Amino acid sequence: MHTPVTIIGAGLGGLTLARVLHLHGIPVTVYEADATPTARSQGGMLDIHEHNGQLALRTAGLTDEFRALVLEGRQAIRLLDRNGTVLFDKADDGTGASPEVQRGELRQILLDSLPDSTVRWGHKATTVHALGEGRHEVTFADGTTAVTSLLVGADGAWSRVRPLLSDATPAYVGRSFVETCLHDADTRHPATAKAVGGGTLVALDPEGNGKWLVAHREKGGTLHAYITLAEPQGWFATIDFTDAAVAAARIAEEYDGWAPELTALITAGETAPVLRPLHALPVGHRWERVPGVTLLGDAAHLATPNGEGAGLAMQDGAELGAALAAHPDDIRIALAEYEQAMFPRSAAAAAAVAHDPTPQQMINFFTGREGAGI
Q1: Residue 325 contacts by C-beta under 8 Å, 6 or more apart in sequence?
Q2: Beta pairing class for 223-229 and 212-217
Q3: 239 torsion bin: left (phi>0), alpha (psi -120 to 50), beta (else)
Q4: Using an 8 Å Cβ cutoff, are 150 and 249 in contact?
Q5: Using one digit for the tens of pLDDT, what is the confidence trace for 166-223?
Q6: Staple 216 to which of 15, 45, 297, 343, CB 3.0 to 4.6 Å?
Q7: What DSSP character marks residue 171?
């Protein structure tokens, strides 16, 4: 007999788990803080790798739906220096090894694959406490509660479930992204669109300094950019991000001397710059087995962005779901089997991050050579 599963968080990892459980006839409920599926933006582009995200989608029986979302040509990659000089240029090879999709569309196919009653929207978990014998009670912001014998924290960086297992908390990694968007770029910002190319652009200062730009070409000629600055959080606190023009100008000052087609990603955006401080859990974060509860995705192994986070979360969900299906009469064995594989996998991915990559490290990363890692 299968124990009903309670998942906190309707991100990609939690929904992949829910889908795999649903395929195996295991009762599952997902509680999500957002009031609706469209309550907030789901972010930009994701490259879904063969070795994790695509494996998870195969386990979830959603490969065809995923393939229908893939934006052709977006595997193209360009590396430029601060002057706009091309250091590396690779066209989309058509292999589909890491195709690009919109995060919101990927989440939607997972939602569409579940019965409507699976996700309980507008349920923000505030506290979780143990009742004994592997049972836990979750209290939500509206005062309602849920009691479960199998709880999965898929609730991200600031997980409410994590404290049941670990005292670890995310720490600021010493740098932040500032996120911007340029719309209809081929017409309105042709020089910048040309610099970005057909897929992903990375622009670096060869001397380091913690400054680099990443931009993705999304649908409809939109360029979605992430501007990196290695500054303490107090530095960003001096910038008024409620005034878009002031914030963009201040960030652009830090990129003085860069090619104008690159700095336009900062100053020419049609949306207000959004600050994204970067936090991470300790590399190799793990815990001793606790009855009736586990974590996946960022709740388990939040790391500095390196292109693997979404895929790892989905792989977590798929493998946890498969383990629970394989051991319907012994939750303890299922969770131990899942965690035993998840801990080293996530540690290896987090350890591969270089905080201030050189051009050669980026080329290694793009080509899969030794020394790769961003």
Answers
A1: 2, 20, 21, 24, 26
A2: antiparallel
A3: beta
A4: no
A5: 999 999 999 999 999 999 999 999 999 999 998 899 999 877 788 999 999 988 889 9
A6: 45
A7: E
**Which one-letter amino acid corresponds to residue 133?**
E
Question: Could you give the CA distance from residue 206 to residue 174 in angstroms, rounded to a whole number?
Answer: 20
The residue type at 203: A
Structure-token pair, residue 89: 């240029």
Nearest Cα to Cα of residue 199 among 98, 313, 304: 98
Strands 151-153 and 5-8: parallel
Q: Cβ(265)–Cβ(228) under 8 Å?
A: no
Q: Dump pLDDT digits (tens) for 307-361.
A: 788 999 999 999 999 999 999 999 999 999 999 999 999 999 888 765 667 776 7
- On whether the pTM is more than 0.85, the answer is yes
Residue 76 pLDDT grade (very low, low, confident, very high; cuts 50, 70, 90): confident
Which residue's structure tokens are 């609730």? Answer: 155
Confidence of residue 368 (pLDDT cuts 50, 70, 90): low
With beta carbons less than 8 A apart as the criterion, state whether 47 and 75 touch: yes
- Phi and psi of 243, rounded to 5°? -110, 100
Q: Under a CB-based contact definition with an 8 Å cutoff, are residues 297 and 161 in contact?
A: no
**Alpha-carbon distance 264 to 148, whole Å?**
51
Task: Confirm if 153 and 294 have CB atoms less than 8 A apart.
Answer: yes
DSSP reduced 3-state for 88:
strand
Instruction: Give Cα separations from 142 to 34, 125, 151, 166 (angstroms).
Output: 13, 9, 20, 26
Burial of 248 (0-12, 13-18, 19+ CB in 10 A): buried
